[in-house]
């Protein structure tokens, strides 16, 4: 990476929050954080936007990289990272000059998980399902145009599913996502069918609007959703919704397997077990 005046500040002293020179191409007052317009005085919003961006960087990112992605002046990004580092929300790795989400974020996430019952209530049920299937069990909720993994129990096999808690995934290419869309409130389902980005993550991903609508209608008819290498080559999954008293999904529950270990019809045989577990969780978890 070339060094210019935007990267001349010594990143290793980030926690001290020194002043940094403004880059010559500093963003105007309507600068954006994470693709959203942000007021220059909205420092809290900008700081939160940096945390969201770091959440998408499992290997961390430099201050210059974060500045470019956030579309903020380097000096602003650098000062915010210093404050976040000081308070434990961000960790700084001097060797690679990279920033990562800190343990403070993990602590807050655990409190949210406990508040919603995902740890104390959901995990034992997921463990019971995994004990019967021998495969990974995943609980997800909808977060805008994505699904958010809130709890997962791995199977005993060496080949692991990578959708760990905190993972944001596609609604259109995953079994949990399809179940959440199919059993959303009517108006919300129609909005998602019209607006949801249909990403081509693999050759099998559904990218046509009419084809996706037909898929969701099939999910509603049969009561479960299937993903067959649409989200990740070599993986398939089946998911069922957790329904509230109005019959709308507030979460979804899935079994995920590598294709070499379980055929599609064998996977579908787990649907009754998932539906039983989903009904139990729906009765015990807070319904958002």
Please give the order of strands in the largest beta sheet: 7-6-5-10-9-8
Helix-strand string: EEHHHEEHHEEEHHHEEEHH
- List how many beta strands DSSP finds: 10
End-to-end separation: 45 Å
The biggest beta sheet reads: 6 strands, antiparallel
Radius of gyration: 21 Å
Q: What amount of the residues lies in strands?
A: 15-25%
Low-confidence segments: 1-40
Shape summary: globular
The total of helices stands at: 10
Helix content: 25-40%
- Average pLDDT score: 82
Structural class: alpha+beta
Characterise this structure:
With 288 residues, this protein is of the alpha+beta class. Helices cover 40% and strands 19% of the residues. The protein is built from 10 helices and 10 strands. The longest helix is centred in the middle third of the chain and has 16 residues. The relative contact order is 0.10. The N terminus is likely disordered.
């Amino acid at each position: 990476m070339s060094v210019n005046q935007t990267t001349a500040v010594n990143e290793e002293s980030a926690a001290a929050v020194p002043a940094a020179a403004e880059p010559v191409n500093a963003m105007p007052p309507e600068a954006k954080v994470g693709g959203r317009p942000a007021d220059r005085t909205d420092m809290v919003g900008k700081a939160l936007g940096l945390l969201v961006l770091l959440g998408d960087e499992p290997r961390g990112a430099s201050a210059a990289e974060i500045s470019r992605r956030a579309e903020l002046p380097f000096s602003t990004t650098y000062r915010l990272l210093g404050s976040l580092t000081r308070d434990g929300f961000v960790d700084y790795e001097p060797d690679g000059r990279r920033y990562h989400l800190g343990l403070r974020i993990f602590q807050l996430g655990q409190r949210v998980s406990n508040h919603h019952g995902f740890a104390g209530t959901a995990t034992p049920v997921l463990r019971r399902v995994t004990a019967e299937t021998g495969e990974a069990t995943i609980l997800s909720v909808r977060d805008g145009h994505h699904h958010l993994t809130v709890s997962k129990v791995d199977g005993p096999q060496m080949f692991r599913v990578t959708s760990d808690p905190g993972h944001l995934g596609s609604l259109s290419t995953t079994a949990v996502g399809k179940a959440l869309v199919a059993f959303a409130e009517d108006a919300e389902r129609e909005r998602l069918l019209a607006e949801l980005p249909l990403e081509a993550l693999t050759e099998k991903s559904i990218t046509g609007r009419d084809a996706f609508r037909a898929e969701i209608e099939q999910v509603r008819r049969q009561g479960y959703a299937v993903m067959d290498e649409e989200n990740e080559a070599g993986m398939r999954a089946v998911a069922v919704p957790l329904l509230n008293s109005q019959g709308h999904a507030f979460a979804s529950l899935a079994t995920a397997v590598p294709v070499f270990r379980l055929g599609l019809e064998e996977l579908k045989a787990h649907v009754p077990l998932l539906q039983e577990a989903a009904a139990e969780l729906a009765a015990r978890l807070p319904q958002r």
